[in-house]
Amino acid sequence: MESFEKELKKILESRIRDVKDFPKPGILFKDITPLLRDPETLNLTLRMLVKPFLSKNIELVVGLESRGFLFGPGLAMNLHAGFVPIRKPNKLPAKTVSATYQLEYGEDKVEVHADAIIKGNRVVIHDDLIATGGTAAAATELVERLGGEVVGYSFLIELDALGGRKQLKEGAPVETLLKF
Ligand code: AMP
């Protein structure tokens, strides 16, 4: 079982393209578009993302703009949960709450609709990739401010050396398919 899962992960890994110096010098960008383009890996990725959260009574999947919108709704549908987007500033039309977080230089902000999460909702936070963990930590703050319970985190890719998972809610499982 272990080695079967390893084989599947190798197939996914073969569809991640490394792009040097994008979007700026020194960044090795993990491009998931080859994985999305291939029907087999598109399907396999979704099934592997869903598995750890089956029978966990998840009510909402919160996806982070923008690549968290690719698998987020599919993940939600397979868990019989709803989908909530967390967006960059000034994109959501109704009343929002926002959280700021630190970038390498300066800071950034994310927003969610104030009525999107109801007190006690069981939430999974999803994105394509966790690097420093700043974005997912800001998402955690938003979910908790609205009274939601972060039950876990879901990422395709974790950049292990950056230690992003330390920024996340203690005790909530962090499920990642591929580590680099
Ligand atoms: P962070 O807040 O540092 O964990 O950054 C996570 C966000 O930035 C995610 O939405 C990722 O899609 C994006 N990101 C950061 N680093 C990379 C990378 N090396 N390759 C692709 N996306 C990245």
Kindly describe this structure.
This protein has one domain (2-179): 3-Layer(aba) Sandwich (Rossmann fold). It is 29% helix and 32% strand. The chain has helices spanning 2-13, 33-37, 39-50, 68-78, 134-145; strands at 17-20, 28-31, 60-64, 82-86, 96-102, 107-113, 122-130, 149-158, 174-179. A five-stranded parallel beta sheet has the order 4-3-7-8-9, with helices on both faces. It has a two-stranded antiparallel ribbon with strand order 1-2. It has a two-stranded antiparallel ribbon with strand order 5-6. Strand 7, helix 5 (134-145) and strand 8 (149-158) form a beta-alpha-beta unit. Helix 3 crosses helix 4 (68-78). Bound molecules: adenosine monophosphate. Adenosine monophosphate binds next to strand 2, strand 7 and helix 5.
